[in-house]
């Protein structure tokens, strides 16, 4: 009872939908990439400007990292790093290539950067007789450092703190933050959709001594807020008309999705009506109620899929319109949510196309095979998950301290999952070789048994299950499908 | 009705063709490699000479890159880099190991290097009150820098520009190019085919500030033009006779291909004639017209394959002769096209050999299996492509800003395709872990579901499809092939 | 005869066990990670402080390593490195960020660091006439270096040794150790389970010249001993109540395991009784003794599995209680053993859950398949092991000197095993290309043949064996299982 | 007709052989590793001492390399590098940690190091009018540099060459070699088999300008010759008795192999006799000659395998005895050949064990399957090789200039072969993206089509072929093997 006569309309709608949604996604992706990239580059620039020991090899986020963490290990180094950050800030206008300016408060005076020191309230370690006093309440002392003071060449943080009577005990130190605020206008109009934008940037150079293990980690954090911006601009390109296009795109995609949603809901409702009458019919003439499984056959899962993706895209599009129209704050989070809705929605739209391929017999074989083997694959996966969980927990506990990859539980799972698929195997072997022979032997047995079991036995079982389903379906085609009660 | 009696001649021809074409390809590949390698090495040398912060780790093009982009972040650094490039140029003859000389114009005076500055026409950022003026027309100011001036040790670009009254506003700066021209003669005669060659090299040190995000990217670009060159040379080896050999090779391969082409066209034409008469026969005596499929059986796909490769190689060989005989300009592009023709042609020649293996029964099984499963594999691939497209688009949008691999759409596809085949999995997992928990969870679900679906389900289905075809063919061999109408 | 009526109790117990044990494991893993991480970070800090040429890229343990070994090659460098270590030690209190203090002996005087030099007793190389005298007894000279002496800026080890009349012959030198002792208190209370801890750290800077090949390897070794520690501490969080929780956890897991152990032993014993009476029955009425295989059917392997994991966890938990309660010394080893017991125990608990899934028919198919194909897979594995051993030994011998991966026998095995699974193949190819053409050709043939054989033939055979088992089991389900004598 | 009654003796012999040969191989591998490792470490030490810009990251031979080639790009750098090498040599005794001494000639005077300069005989590049004169005969000028002269701090090569009237034209320069000779005695007796050894080392610092592309590659080459060495040594361990053990090992393995060889030859000869009589029998009574295939059934391939490995090991053992007994020169090559014989021999010994597993029925299934599918796999491989060759040649030509991996033909093959097995895929994709869009598109189509074809189609076909063979063999077991004429 596939509604064969009406299908061209729906198919056409779906194809239009795919095109419209994908076009919109491409536009959005580029737009978003620009924003994120600008922030990332700003962070890199700040790292070069405000962190003394910064190195370009730290700009690439790879596994395994090229270097150990950026940290200071000597007291003198700590003050040097801090001086470097503060003096750069004092001369930011002359030094930096980007055009950064201090932020002013409402009175027109510069908002000075703040140096905050978190320490344990009090305490002392009497190492000689293995005893200590500690009050683990945390006190935070903050001090403003006006850039005009810090500009001189012989200025130093250490002296400055001494004049301010701030004691500084490395044994109790938890955190030192240098927070500064800057404003900038991005005068970039390369791409069609670009207009200059005003940002309020808050930078924090963090010296983290929470671990108290002899190293103070150095980190830079940049937060950006987009400000409303007036500007007279003479543009060679017609960016305004492009803005109109973008709005048309948004509206178009919402309309298409709403239409598609309505049609699917109608179809689902019709299916529900047919089910109702069939149930009635069975109850009266066959005398046997329909099982849940048989009732589910009236609910077309494809329609539900389409409904879901329509809803996702409509929500995503509205979020997108919101992001584009007004000046937003709390930058990255909303963008992430919006892109998640649009992205997943678009993915499901593409999956939905498979339904229309299923109308051709030869394609249908494959879809039916997947459908057929699905429950078995799922059941099998549950069995495997138990084994996998056992291995993961054990590996995490025993190998965790000796290997980067086994540090956290999620990373252990990812590592083992990658090993199953033949990735990074030798590197894992070679770096799990601690000095302790117990661990060494354990890691060998653990890895060899895990990999052999999963690659040779479990992967083969998957193939067996799926081939079995394929052959069953092929037999059905030759000899007819098993009839259910509904098809008498 | 395979023409069994005539086959040895054609087979012999094909074998000769494979040998000749492969030999020619090897010669060409070596010749080409030399040229490209010379240019690459020249670029490396120039990078060392003209870019201040150049590092040998930047010479290796790998994924993931060892360092972040080469860029300057401070105004002082920018001028230092520029001074370094210009002063090296001024002393190139004494400093460089290669023998580079300034280019002279027709009057015999040195062509001076040019420093060009691209800026927005006008504009200013009033950061205090979040407003700006911008005219995004681009003005380009160029100034010659004669090497004789720049030779002094206390010369600096900054002062020079001031004397020339060129204003330099980092806020508006888009691009700074330092373009210089050099000549060189490659006095290398190591390899049999080498003769000294004269090059005109144009170097450009580019300082790119288009992004306006606080970093100016530094890049070097070298373009080479081959000049006609006279020279008296006393060679120990007999390079002239080798030149003759090369020409013989070219002619030989063209002749072989032409002969092969003629024979294939004749065979195709004969097939066409037989088809004509069969159609006539069927129309008259069977009363049933032949379907397109049945007609296609008369067209031997192998002959068409051979025709295509012959044509490709003939075109490639003519291009090659052209490249070798005259002095060429616009170096790399023509070479690329030529190598593409020769390469693809040669690849198809090798594929064509499979046809002759098909004459043996046992080999034929395999070829028939591939032929049999081909339509199913294709159909299945279309289904998969939909799923793949959905995943790619979604991943590109959501993960793009957080991971190098998902930056562009094509690279997202490559990344996902590699993941299917078990490559670089853990590294992808570990570097998609942004700080945002929404993105983190999405990336985990996305990657686990994608990999599991493709590796465990889809790969197994491929195996099922192909095994099915294989068994069908084996049954045919045992019980006879299904007869078509043509074989009564 | 599965004891269907009693099963819910046991299942419930097992589920409770899984939850309790996994929770305990998670707590333990975090606790352990903290300890090991603290030690690792301390080692990094010491490396920065005591080794002159230390570089952050050495902090990442990866394959392949980023740098060659840390070594000195010049005599002057050797003394510079040594001076650096000693002078850092002399100023450790002012320089280091961590709060380290010298260790004092019972008289209250500083325990001075010791410089030990191991040399061959005597010997000389008369290189001119190719002869030598050598007495390979090793003499070890140790000298105390009080930090107060070494504090001056012009102090140097070389002069100091001369004043002490210690001769220093690089030709005979085997080892130079600089051993120092420090105390520290870790004032970290970030995490709920953290309390300040006192450590006694023994650092050793080792200059290793055993190889006598022109390079002296430099290494740092840190050993930690936990000391008993008194301290008055004002904690914001209620760590004491957490301590109680931890103890409850320990006891709970032991109780659960003991109960589970008792139930399993009882069930096994009951099985033994049934077996006894069956044996009796058969002997009397059937007149045929039971074979060992038939007897084994009464022993439920699942129960044995559960017994093993119970025992492992009970031992592990007791070890854990020991580690937590008293002040321990000999830090890492006991922790490793304890985590091994808990980890393996927990893994087996998870595996044990599979048994209860086996009660459902559809799940049972998979478990039966694995059981069915197990002997064949094992037999096949033995065949493969022979081939694998042959390849490993041969590769180790021939390629060992040319490639990092083939250095040791175990690493050769790991390399080959990784290659089978498609890992790191090109890198292996490209780095086994020594200069010697014999080795080059051998390595090519070796690698191509090995990989092709294992990936294409052996992996396929595994799939064949497992599919065969799967189909057999499916047939059994359709047509009934083969009856054994026991089921008349 | 397997000789069941005699088999235990042979099996025992083979097991003894495996143990003896493997033990010997382990000893030999360790011995050899020591030698090669010593040389490698010496090379590293010399690199640090004699090459100015040497960096530890160059000591690791990996793919992809961490840095570009070590080269000089400026004339001043060239002379600095050369000065560094020569001055190090002049002060080698004081500076180096290893104990190196100058080599003396028979008169007792130091053999001075030699600086050789290879240049084109004459030539000049008139870059202004694009013409050149070149005589490509190579003249080599050598000059001795006594270490006593070069010791001063203001000594420089440049001045020295001027005083010697040696002209130095970078345009004509091909090669500059600095060759020096040193002697050393390795006073290492760590391992049981170690005795001090005397080496004559020849170092060459090579400045290679053959490419004439602006960079002079810098390389170091070390050759070692073992000299006869007298020495009085007081050893704590009993190395002499170990020497005896080593000899016993050698003799034992030769004896075992000879016995095994004799037995196999006898068995083969007996097989030949049986064949003869069968042929006679068939000719007389059946009247039908035996085919070659049927005759081959009398030749036991296992015996031939054993014969081959016996011969290989006997040759290898004799080579080993030779290496151990006398003082050898031409160090590495003989060792390589010897290890090749022993390694391959040992590998085949292990393979030979499979034969005895074949006596058990269940194991035999697998061996028979491999035997059965072997011809099909081979035939299929030939088909694939054609396709592979086509792809390799084409990729080499077109992508060669743009990617490290496609530089040489053999490396292209290795790259493609690795890609098939899922290795290094994304890295290959990401680094084949040249600027030229033609090449970009070609590389995408090329890689996607290649990988998809090989992984999805060809790998599946392999599985199909092998499963087919497995099922055939299983059927044989159930229904009996097909009878050949010989088994009437």
Topology readout:
The structure is a homotetramer of 488-residue chains.
Chain A (H helix, E strand, L loop, with lengths): L6 H44 L20 E2 L2 H16 L1 H4 L4 E3 L11 E13 L4 E14 L2 H4 L6 H7 L9 E14 L10 E12 L7 E12 L2 E5 L4 H48 L5 H5 L4 H25 L5 H27 L3 H39 L9 H12 L4 H7 L5 H43 L9
Antiparallel strand pairs in A: 1-7, 2-5, 3-4, 3-5, 5-6, 6-7
Helix pairs in contact in A: 1-6, 1-9, 6-8, 8-9, 10-11, 10-13
Key words describing this protein structure:
488 residues, homotetramer, 7-stranded antiparallel beta sheet, alpha+beta, 8 strands
Radius of gyration of chain A: 32 Å
Beginning-to-end CA distance, first to last residue of chain A? 14 Å
Are there runs of chain A of 5+ residues with pLDDT below 50, and where?
A: none
Q: How many DSSP helices of chain A?
A: 13
Subunit organisation of the chains: homotetramer
Helix content of chain A: 55-70%
Largest sheet of chain A: 7 strands, antiparallel
Strand-residue fraction of chain A? Answer: 15-25%
Number of strands of chain A: 8
Q: What's the shape of chain A? A: extended
Could you tell me the mean pLDDT of chain A?
Answer: 83
Order of helices and strands of chain A: HEHHEEEHHEEEEHHHHHHHH
Structural class of chain A: alpha+beta
Largest interface, C-beta within 8 A: A-B, 104 and 87 residues
């Amino acid at each position: 009872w596939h509604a064969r006569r009406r299908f061209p309309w729906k198919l056409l709608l779906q194809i239009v939908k795919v095109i419209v949604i994908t076009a919109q996604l491409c536009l959005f992706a580029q737009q978003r990439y620009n924003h994120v990239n600008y922030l990332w580059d700003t962070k890199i620039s700040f790292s070069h400007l405000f962190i003394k020991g910064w190195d370009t090899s730290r700009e690439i986020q790879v596994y395994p990292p090229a270097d150990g963490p950026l940290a200071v290990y000597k007291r003198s180094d700590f003050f040097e790093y801090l001086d470097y950050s503060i003096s750069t800030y004092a001369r930011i206008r002359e030094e930096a290539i980007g055009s950064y300016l201090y932020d002013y408060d409402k009175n027109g005076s510069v908002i000075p950067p703040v140096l905050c020191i978190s320490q344990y309230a009090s305490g002392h370690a009497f190492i000689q007789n293995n005893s200590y006093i500690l009050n683990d309440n945390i006190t935070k002392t903050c001090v403003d450092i006006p850039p005009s003071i810090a500009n001189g060449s012989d200025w130093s943080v250490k002296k400055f703190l001494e004049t301010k009577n701030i004691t500084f005990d490395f044994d109790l130190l938890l955190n030192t933050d240098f927070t500064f605020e800057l404003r900038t206008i991005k005068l970039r109009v390369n791409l069609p959709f670009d207009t200059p934008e005003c940002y309020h940037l808050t930078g924090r150079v963090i010296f983290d001594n929470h671990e108290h293990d002899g190293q103070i980690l150095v980190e830079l954090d940049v937060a950006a807020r987009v400000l409303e911006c007036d500007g007279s601009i003479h543009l060679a390109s017609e960016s305004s008309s492009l803005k109109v296009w973008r709005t048309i795109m948004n509206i178009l995609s919402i309309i298409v999705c709403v239409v598609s949603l309505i049609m699917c809901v109608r179809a689902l409702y019709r299916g529900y009506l047919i089910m109702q009458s069939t149930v009635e019919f069975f109850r009266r003439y066959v005398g046997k109620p329909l099982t849940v499984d048989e009732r589910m056959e009236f609910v077309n899962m494809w329609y539900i899929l389409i409904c879901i993706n329509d809803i996702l895209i409509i929500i995503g599009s509205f979020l997108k319109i919101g992001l584009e129209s007004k000046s937003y704050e709390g930058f990255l989070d909303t963008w992430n949510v919006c892109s998640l809705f649009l992205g997943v929605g678009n993915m499901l739209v593409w999956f939905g196309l498979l339904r229309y391929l299923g109308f051709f017999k030869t394609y249908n074989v494959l879809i039916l095979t997947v459908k057929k083997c699905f429950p078995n694959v799922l059941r099998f996966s549950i069995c495997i998950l138990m084994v996998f969980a056992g291995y993961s927990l054990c590996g995490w506990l025993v190998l965790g301290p000796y290997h980067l990859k086994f540090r956290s539980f999620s990373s252990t799972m990812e590592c083992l999952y990658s090993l199953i698929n033949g990735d990074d195997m030798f590197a894992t072997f070679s770096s799990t070789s601690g000095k302790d022979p117990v661990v060494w032997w354990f890691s060998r047995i653990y890895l060899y048994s895990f990999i052999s079991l999963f690659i040779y036995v479990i992967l083969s079982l998957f193939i067996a299950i799926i081939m079995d389903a394929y052959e069953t379906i092929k037999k059905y085609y030759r000899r007819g499908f098993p009839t259910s009660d509904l098809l008498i």
